[in-house]
Design goal:
The chain is α+β, with helices and mostly antiparallel strands. Helix content is 20%, strand content 24%. Bound molecules: 2-oxoglutaric acid (AKG) and fe (ii) ion (FE2).
Length: 290
């Protein structure tokens, strides 16, 4: 686990560059269990014929009609079906990294795994800033008070579509990337011209190749994206987004004064705005990829 001093240095790099990588965040002897539970969650996703929602739990499915076979590309809030991931979200390793950035009272507003199954093709994420996924009126200075973490479950390489970031872009303000059309970030790819039009040199993109157990931090204003998987190996990536607790009513408690907090009986309003009006269980069959 990071020492307090190392965590402060990570926080400084994060504020300066808009991202920071922590190699070996998770102990190597923990990787097998992480990968096995990720596989189990994927298999549960495969039991759904279409995109499924129940509360904050969400499986995004690419169905066989359009993709030749069924693929799971995302799960949100797998903590509701996995005791392993419920505990994982509030591990001390996370608190050590988060404390210098967010303080000791921390809520979680996103828990996701993104898969890029070989053959699914539609697994790229256009360049964007995650601020587009937050209802800003529900937070005070959400960009400053949020940090998102991405943990490599599988090895992430250029070939299988590792995350790419634009260093320093968190200082450019909100740029509106990928907000055009229906705003779908997984449809199509970012043209170099789109980046140039907002003052970004596409050659500045840094491909974050990661080993299982490595963690990356990025901010809601850091421009990032990733390519589809062109390899034979999946890229499971665990995303958790945390916020300083006293700046919002949203989110599930993760740490109170540094003490890990389990999920309660019922889900709290996080990113999914219709949690109380449309909790499901339900299937969403709109084919956004067409
Ligand atoms: O999984 C990835 O490569 C990036 C995902 C992402 O940026 C997002 O969902 O906002
Ligand atoms: Fe993103």
């Amino acid at each position: 686990m990071l020492t307090a001093n190392e965590a402060r240095q990570v926080a400084e790099r994060y504020r300066e560059e808009g991202y920071a990588i922590i190699r070996g965040f998770l102990d190597p002897d923990e990787i097998d269990a992480l990968q096995a539970e990720t596989r189990r969650v994927y298999e549960e996703g495969l039991t759904h014929h279409a995109t499924f929602r129940h509360g904050n739990l969400y499986f995004e499915i690419l169905p066989e009609e359009d993709f030749g076979q069924r693929y799971v590309i995302q799960v949100h809030w797998q903590a509701w079906i996995s005791a392993y991931f419920e505990a994982f979200r509030r591990r001390q390793e996370y608190f050590a990294v988060l404390e210098p950035i967010l303080g000791r009272d921390i809520k979680q507003v996103a828990q996701q795994i993104h898969w890029k199954p070989p053959g699914a093709n539609l697994t790229g994420y256009r360049f964007h800033q995650d601020l587009r996924f937050r209802d800003q009126s529900s937070y005070d200075d959400v960009a400053f008070n949020t940090v998102t973490t991405g943990l490599a479950i599988d090895r992430a390489t250029r070939e299988n579509g590792c995350l790419q970031v634009i260093p320093g872009s968190q200082k450019m303000g909100y740029l509106g990337l990928s907000d055009d059309g229906d705003g779908q970030i997984m449809k199509g790819l970012t043209a170099e011209e789109e980046l140039k039009a907002v003052g970004i040199d596409p050659n500045d993109a840094v491909a974050l190749e990661m080993e299982p157990g490595d963690l990356v931090l990025w901010s809601l204003l850091t421009v990032h994206g990733s390519m589809p998987n062109h390899s034979a190996h999946d890229r499971a990536f665990a995303i958790s987004s945390y916020v300083r607790a006293d700046t919002t009513d949203r989110g599930e408690w993760a740490f109170r004064d540094g003490i890990p907090q389990a999920l309660g009986e019922t889900p709290k309003l996080c990113k999914y705005d219709k949690l109380f009006e449309r909790p499901g269980p339900l299937y969403e069959t709109q084919p956004w990829w067409r």
